[in-house]
Amino acid sequence: MEDLSEALGAEYRGTRLGNTGGDFAVYSFYPNRHLTTLEGSAIAFRSNEDFERCRWLRRYGIHVPSFRTQNGEINPASDIAEAGWNTCMNQVTALVGVEQFNSLE
């Protein structure tokens, strides 16, 4: 796992950090970071399997495509196989971060 809290856009020996072979790359967007969203972070994954697992864990472990029936009711056949958390960035903090991309290389 690469901790890139202070390394957004940095390179080491010609390779951008976050692309050096780790399974995960984690970026912090806390107020004292290079790019801030006032709060929050991002994680990048080497494998699609890890990405998919984290995708459902970020919403309490709910597998969204199978959680509700076509009419919007909770699907009784749906199961939360692994408990997760609620860790989604809100739209205001995301907008603060997106606007800063204009100043990045």
Written account of the structure:
The longest helix is centred in the middle third of the chain and has 10 residues, at 48-57. The radius of gyration is 17 Å and the shape is globular. By secondary structure, it is an alpha+beta fold. The two termini are 24 Å apart. It contains 3 helices and 5 strands, in the order E-E-E-E-E-H-H-H. The protein has a single domain, classed as Aspartate Aminotransferase, domain 2 (3-Layer(aba) Sandwich), CATH 3.40.640.10.
Q: What's the domain count? A: 1
Indicate the overall shape.
Answer: globular
Number of helices: 3
- The helix/strand class is alpha+beta
Order of helical and strand elements? EEEEEHHH
Tell me the span between the first and last alpha carbons: 24 Å
Helix content: 10-25%
Strand content: 15-25%
| Sequence stretches where pLDDT stays below 50 over 5 or more residues | none
The biggest sheet amounts to: 3 strands, mixed
User: Do you know the CATH topology?
Assistant: Aspartate Aminotransferase, domain 2
Total count of strands: 5
- CATH architecture identity: 3-Layer(aba) Sandwich
| CATH superfamily grouping | Type I PLP-dependent aspartate aminotransferase-like (Major domain)
CATH C-level label: Alpha Beta
Rg for CA atoms: 17 Å
Strand order within the widest beta sheet: 1-4-5
Question: What is the residue-averaged pLDDT?
Answer: 89
